[in-house]
Specification:
The complex is a heterodimer of chains A (293) and B (166). Chain A has 6 helices and 7 strands, in the order E-H-E-H-E-H-E-H-E-H-E-H-E. With 293 residues, chain A is an alpha/beta fold. Chain A has one domain: NAD(P)-binding Rossmann-like Domain (Rossmann fold). In chain A, strands 3-2-1-4-5-6-7 form a 7-stranded parallel β-sheet, sandwiched between helices. In chain A, strand 2, helix 2 and strand 3 form a beta-alpha-beta unit. Chain A is globular. Chain B is α/β, with parallel strands linked by helices and 166 residues long. Classes of the chains: A alpha/beta (293), B alpha/beta (166). Chains A and B meet through helix 5, helix 6 and strand 7 of A and helix 3 and helix 4 of B. Chain A: Pfam families: adh_short_C2. Chain A: GO terms for molecular function: oxidoreductase activity. Chain A: Keywords: Oxidoreductase. Chain A: This is 2,4-dienoyl-CoA reductase.
Chain lengths: 293, 166
């Protein structure tokens, strides 16, 4: 069903009008994990719009390089690095390479993640490990590597974590990601406390539905147009407004913001009626565990 | 270019940092009447042990921290609907657990009221968010101004703080 025409749907400003000056991150380098595509690329573009140089890391160097090229078109320096964030030696090496190419990393966006709809009983050990460890271990390893370097330099910094709107409710049909994304949010609060004395801020966005070319939704047959009406806001999110809020938390405009998990989901996680459609267990849903229609 | 260029904002309650941020981002502050943005700041109630608090003191906190906010937001939303326009509401107040039981009740209720109104009024184009914090500085002002602007068009029903103890 399309959104009824008498409903009012708030829209963000266009991509070309970011909420901060073009030099707000001038002279700084951000490292974005999984920054070559999707939500990570949106974060990287947003930091670049504020003048940050961008280290794009990802398991696929091809995707990282392609993303870096798009970011560089905004007029900043970029560097693509192949890295699996589950392994501490690879993370340390990626930071070394990023700092050799672009200078000290003072901003970090933990975005790397994997996610796909699957019944809990069908999640293999490998799949469980992949989804949970990229998000949980990867966020821990990149954040601690970042913090050790900032502390050693006697300088602060800012971290933003890409979490998800389903961290408070669970997500039937997505058990691995439900666990992983919640860990990112809860560690955000503790890392912020651990590092407050060092001037390192840590925040997270509990992101809703931001379709993009590499998301499951983006690949959905028929596109995402028919999904707009299921969101209270009357639309799915625009990927650039997610990038902006992520980068905003790292600006001096919000210098006192730390330990916060900000939900940005158009009210999706808050849908609730006393009477709801019959409950269908994920394994019995006609269109798979996420049950999109 | 400001986040709130061309917008009118009504700031209820005392918070110079928020007033400064709203005007710095281009909003025109208005005292009453129809407006695009409603910001409601409730002062933190004094800290008291629950068994030493009178019912009148209890009720004063709930009145300022919950009842008056709901009634004001309800009137704001009605005016926006009548005008055929969307709008934004941002409630600002003390953290839920930092003070007394009165604030715990008012703050908790406000949080879930925010989540409810954010969705109930979503298709009116009216967003509702809350910042519960002990901060009273430029970060608070900028955060509130951001939430009030179209840059936060996909943020509604959100309850957040500013610092570690919020």
């Amino acid at each position: 069903m399309p959104v009824p025409s008498h409903h009012i749907v708030p829209l963000p400003p266009p991509f070309g009008a970011p909420p901060y000056p073009a030099d707000i991150f001038a002279g700084q380098t951000v490292l974005v994990t999984g920054g070559g595509t999707g939500m990570g690329l949106a974060m990287a573009m947003a930091f670049a719009q504020g003048g940050a140089n961008v280290a794009v890391i990802g398991r696929s160097i091809d995707k990282a390089e392609a993303g870096a090229a798009r970011i560089a078109a905004l007029g900043v320096r970029t560097h693509a690095i192949s890295c699996d964030v589950r392994w501490p030696d690879q993370v340390a090496a990626a930071f070394d390479e990023a700092e050799r190419a672009l200078g000290p990393v003072s901003l970090l966006a933990n975005n790397a993640g994997a996610n796909f709809p699957v019944l809990a009983e069908d999640i293999s050990v490998n799949a469980w490990n992949a989804v949970t460890r990229i998000a949980i271990d990867g966020t821990f390893l990149c954040s601690t590597e970042f913090a050790r370097r900032r502390i050693a330099r006697g300088q602060g910094g800012a971290i933003i974590n890409n979490s998800a709107q389903y961290i408070w409710t669970g997500f039937p049909g997505d058990a691995h990601s439900a666990a992983a994304k919640t860990a990112q949010a809860t560690m955000t609060k503790k890392l912020a406390r651990d590092w407050a004395a060092f001037g390192i801020r840590v925040n997270a966005i509990a992101a809703g539905f931001f379709p993009h070319e590499t998301s499951t939704a983006g690949r959905r047959e028929g596109g995402t147009e028919v999904l707009q009406n299921m969101i209270p806001a009357g639309r799915t999110g625009s990927i650039h407004e997610f990038g902006w809020l992520s980068a905003m938390t790292c600006t001096p405009l919000l210098a006192g913001l730390t330990g916060q998990v900000i939900v940005q989901d158009g009210g999706e996680s808050l849908r609730r009626s006393l009477m709801m459609p019959d409950y269908v267990p994920p394994r019995e849903r006609a269109e798979g565990p996420w049950g999109w229609r | 270019m400001g986040w709130l260029d061309g917008r009118t904002a009504r700031l209820v309650g005392h918070c110079p940092a928020i007033a400064t941020a709203l005007t710095a981002q281009g909003a025109t502050l208005v005292a009453d009447g129809d407006c695009d943005v409603l910001i409601h700041v409730a002062p933190p109630p004094p800290v008291q042990l629950a068994h030493e608090q009178s019912h009148a003191e209890w009720r004063a906190t709930l009145d300022a921290g919950l009842d008056q906010r709901f009634l004001l937001a309800k009137d704001f939303a009605a005016a926006r609907r009548a005008a055929g326009k969307g709008g934004t509401v941002v409630f600002v107040g003390a953290p839920e657990q930092a003070l007394g039981a009165d604030q715990a009740a008012a703050g908790g209720a406000l949080g879930n009221l925010t989540k409810t109104l954010g969705v109930e009024w979503a298709r009116d184009g009216i967003r509702v968010n809350t910042v519960q914090t002990e901060a009273d500085d430029a970060t608070l002002g900028n955060l509130v101004a951001y939430l009030a602007s179209d840059y936060a068009a996909y943020v509604t029903g959100a309850v957040m703080g500013v610092g570690l103890d919020d």
